[in-house]
Amino acid sequence: MSISQYNGSAMIAMTGKGCVGIAADRRLGIRNMTKACDFKKVFQVNDKILVGFSGLATDLQTLEQRLRMRCNMYKLREEREISIEAFGNLVASMQYEKRFGYYFVEPVIAGLKADNSPYLMSSDIIGAQCFKDDFVVAGDTAETLFGMCESVYRPDLGPEELFEVLSQCLLSGVDRDCLAGWGATVYIMTPEGVRETHLKGRMD
Ligand SMILES: *[C@@H]1O[C@H](CO)[C@@H](O)[C@H](O)[C@H]1NC(C)=O
Ligand SMILES: *[C@@H]1O[C@H](CO)[C@@H](O)[C@H](O)[C@H]1NC(C)=O
């Protein structure tokens, strides 16, 4: 069993026209055994940054707490919010710092730049960054999600369409993987704010 299958997860981030979104499943398992269906994997850093972590649940929470500390320190020192570009590099460098005993986590970052254009980044477990302008996927279900996204994604979707596309891709993707799914959460970020929606999924 690979590390991404220990606790199971599925995650997609997508860009739209002046908006971005992240969809993640909510299952927490110990290998084949499901423990919870309300596990939080996506976090809002500030008005412009969403970050999702897929991988080992304990490392995910450690990395999230350390990142929150680093962002708070940045805000105190610089007296401004961290930009999405700086945040992307911060995450990658924190992962690379631990490259000989790494966090078993694949982050997915989505947000808006200063001019409200979308920003998307994902990285592997040692922080090799990958920048895309359409969508990124992560987690145990990545292959299936790639297939769904490639056939359904269209550029310049509005927030409502983006929500629909993200939801359908995630729900159909996790149906082919028993280690992820069991409900999902979709976050849509626009310059006006972030909307969080919980979706019901198949419970098997
Ligand atoms: C994640 O999976 C590991 C390995 O199967 C397990 O030991 C651990 O308890 C799981 N994490 C949680 C928070 O249940
Ligand atoms: C999980 O279930 C699958 C399918 O039944 C099985 O092939 C696999 O060995 C199981 N894994 C573990 C760690 O029990």
Descriptive key words:
single chain, 204 residues, alpha+beta, Glutamine Phosphoribosylpyrophosphate, subunit 1, domain 1, 5-stranded antiparallel sheet, binds 2-acetamido-2-deoxy-beta-D-glucopyranose
Poorly predicted parts: none
Taken from the alpha-carbon principal axes, the silhouette is globular
Total helical segments: 5
Rounded to the nearest angstrom, the distance between the terminal CA atoms is 20 Å
- The fraction of residues in strands falls at 25-35%
- Give the strand order of the largest sheet, numbering strands 1, 2, ... along the chain: 10-1-2-11-12
Write down how many β-strands occur, each being a DSSP E stretch of 2 or more residues: 12
* Major β-sheet annotation: 5 strands, antiparallel
Bound ligands: 2-acetamido-2-deoxy-beta-D-glucopyranose
Quickly give the structural class.
Answer: alpha+beta
CATH superfamily: Aminohydrolase, N-terminal nucleophile (Ntn) domain
User: If classified by CATH, what would the architecture be?
Assistant: 4-Layer Sandwich
Measured as a percent range, the helix fraction is 25-40%
pLDDT averaged over residues: 96
CATH class: Alpha Beta
Per the CATH scheme, the topology name is Glutamine Phosphoribosylpyrophosphate, subunit 1, domain 1
Radius of gyration: 16 Å
